[in-house]
Amino acid sequence: MSAVMEIDLGGATIALDGETNAIVDAVLAALRANGGHIVEGAPTRAADILLVSCPLRPGTKAGDPRSLYADARKAAVAMTERGGRIVFLISAVAGTPMRRHPRFSMENASILAGMRALAMEFGPKILVNAVGFGMVEGVAIVAGDKAMLSHTPVGRAGSVEEAVAAVLFFCDPLNSYTTGQMLGVDGGWAAGYGRNF
Description:
By secondary structure, the protein is an alpha/beta fold. The chain has helices spanning about 20-35, 65-80, 100-120, 160-170; strands at about 15-20, 35-40, 50-55, 85-90, 125-135, 135, 140-145, 160, 180-185. The longest helix has 21 residues, at about 100-120.
């Protein structure tokens, strides 16, 4: 990765709940490089930072929002005494539905609502946020739908490195006031630029 954001995690433990993809792999590598310790195969409640990874490409099932919420809530309960972070990695359609993908949009919107409920319930000790990805390309399309590109003010797909920087922002110990938010990494797609769908 080039120009990786630098944060100091000071040995914080990180767990992953959900599927891997190029963004998740790069996020885990960046968290390790910034002093984090990945706990693989351990219960998510053992972590200081929990990443909840959801499918990022329309046409795939986003998962049962109730199950994701229940898993994240268990982790939050375990984090209550020491504090922690939960970061949901979701599609930008969580905040702006896409007519071409109604079910995927609805599933992601449900996950976003659950994330916000957790932020309200577990603040101030636990910060719960989401990163909503638009069209992101690595070797192949990692997130989003090609149709998003014709409605993206920056006129291009995002990179995996740009996606990672947004996740690192929510994991940074210096970020102690942001909770219940979805940061859209979508090149402005959700702003509605020229949208006709």
